[in-house]
Write a structure and sequence with these properties.
The protein is of the alpha+beta class. It is built from four helices and two strands; from the N terminus they run αββααα. Helix 1 (12-43) runs antiparallel to helix 2, helix 2 (87-119) packs antiparallel against helix 3 (126-161) and helix 3 (126-161) packs antiparallel against helix 4 (176-206).
């Protein structure tokens, strides 16, 4: 008769690290919500809205020379203050902030559920594989979606400031290396948990 397998016991260091991860995750989620709410409240009156704007091959001058003399530079990004935003851009700002907070909360919640399972001694399971995969998908949605709406905000701010006379070119806000990197890590983690779950069930079937 097969004897039951003893539960996995985490070391004190492992347990402390996981609890620190839980506290840090909760703090990150709270920060994301507070940040998004503050940005939405600041932009809601639609007056003097600060907007981060990326540029591509945009010449500018900065007081970097002797005694503050202007020096030609290439501008890659900056913050502009738009007197107001077009309705579509303003709503894009709200969506970007809401999506950012939602993605952070979703990823943190999924990883905290995974951490809670690990604290109970359950590491590899179908549920944990699903949690890791879902967290990766949510992160990808955030990396692709938030910059998309932020780009619409920047376009609206520049269009209104320049009365639609400034062409800032085709600027890609989505960080493709980060997107590919997160996709690779998410796929790798999901595969690792799936393989670990399968090997664990095969091992338990032999006991």
């Amino acid at each position: 008769m097969a004897s039951p397998r003893p539960p996995r016991v985490l070391s004190r260091g492992d347990t402390a690290s996981l609890w620190f991860f839980i506290v840090a995750g909760a703090a990150i989620a709270i920060w994301a919500v507070v940040r998004s709410i503050a940005n939405i409240i600041a932009a809601a009156p639609n007056r003097d809205v600060r907007v981060a704007v990326p540029f591509l091959d945009s010449p500018a001058e900065a007081p970097l020379g002797p005694n503050g003399a202007p020096v030609a530079i290439e501008l890659t990004g900056g913050v502009v203050t738009a007197p107001s935003l077009p309705p579509a851009s303003l709503w894009s700002l709200f969506i970007a902030e809401g999506l950012f907070a939602a993605v952070v909360i979703t990823v943190v919640t999924l990883l905290l559920l995974l951490t809670a399972d690990i604290l109970r001694g359950r590491i590899f399971s179908r549920r944990n594989t699903a949690l890791v995969s879902a967290a990766g998908i949510a992160a990808l949605v955030g990396i692709a979606g938030v910059p998309f709406f932020q780009n619409m905000v920047a376009n609206g701010a520049i269009a209104w400031l320049s009365e639609r006379t400034y062409d800032r070119g085709d600027v890609q806000l989505i960080d493709l290396p980060s997107l590919v990197g997160v996709a690779f890590v998410a796929a790798l983690a999901g595969t690792a948990f799936a393989v670990g779950d399968r090997l664990q069930r095969d091992t338990e079937g032999l006991v």
